[in-house]
Amino acid sequence: MKKGLRFTMVLTLLALFTGIACAEQLVINGSTTVLPIAQKVSEAYMKAYPGSAISISGGGSSNGIRALIDSTTNIGNSSRFITAKEVKQAVDNGVYPVPHRIALDCIVPIIHPSNPVNNLSLEQLKDIYTGKIQNWKDVGGEDLKIVVISRDSSSGTFDAWKELVMEKERVVPNALTQPSNGGLVTQIGNTKGAIGYIALGYINDDVKTITVEGVQGSIETTLNNKYKISRPLFMFTNGWPEGETLSFINFILSKQGQSLVAEAGSIPLY
C-alpha cells in the first residue's frame, strides 16, 4: 500500500513539473503604441502568476494583425481597428478576429525643442503633411524648411493620422518615415526643422509638443473629447480567448491592469 502511494505521488509530482516545463508561452505581437502597455502589464502578470511565460514584440499594428491571421501569435496588438480585407484574409485562414479595447490614446504632434511654434490647426497640419506648407515662417515660425516625418504604412498610428488629420489624402512623397514611435522621437530631437507625431506615452524632454486648435493632447482632453486626434487601442484574439490568453485579457481590463495602462503613459478606459 505504501509503495503504491509513493508511486502515485511520484507520478503526480512528475506530471506537475512536466506541466510547468511544457507550459505554453503566451505570444503578443504588433503595435509599438501598445507595446509599452503590453510590457508593463506582462511584467505584473508574470509576478502574479509565476508559472506564466510571455513573449512580446513590436513591429506595427499591421504586423500584429498579420501574425494573428497566420496563427503565429496569441494576441495581435493594434492601434487601429482591423480592416475588412484583413477580416476576409483571417476567415479564409480559419481565424476569427475578436477585438478587445484595452486603452485609449491620443496622437500628439512634436517638433524640435528650439522651434518657437506652439500651436497648429488641423488644417495647417494637413497642409504641412500634403506639402502645401513647406516653411515654418508660414505658420508663425522661423524662415526654416519643414522636414516632414511620418510613421510607415504598417503603423496604426499612421492610419489614424491619415484619417483624422489628412482626411485620407496622401502624405507628401518626400516625407521621411520611421517604423516606430521611439525612432521618430529620436529623429525629431536631432532635426531642427522637423515635425512628426507620436502616441502620448512616448513624449519625453527631447522633443516639444504642440497644441492642436489650442488644445493640448492629454488624458483629460481625450476623455472629454476636446482633443480631436485620439483613438482606441486594441488587442485582437482568434475567437473568444481561453486559458492563459483569457486570463491575460481579463488582467489588463482589471482595475490593476488599467492602472498599469496609465503608468505606461496611455489612457485607461475608466
Explain this structure to me?
The chain is α/β, with parallel strands linked by helices. It has two domains: 2-104 and 232-263, Periplasmic binding protein-like II (D-Maltodextrin-Binding Protein, domain 2); 105-230, 3-Layer(aba) Sandwich (D-Maltodextrin-Binding Protein, domain 2). 39% of the residues lie in helices and 22% in strands. The strands form two sheets. Strands 1, 2, 3, 4, 6, 7, 8, 9 and 11 form a nine-stranded mixed sheet that branches.
What is the N-to-C succession of helices and strands?
Answer: HEHEHEHEEHEHEHEEEHEHH
Low-confidence stretches: 1-22
CATH superfamily placement of the largest domain: Periplasmic binding protein-like II
CATH class of the largest domain equals Alpha Beta
Total domains: 2
* Tally of helical segments: 10
**Beta fraction of the residues?**
15-25%
Our measurement of the CA-to-CA distance between the termini, rounded to an integer number of angstroms, reads: 58 Å
Helical proportion, percent range: 25-40%
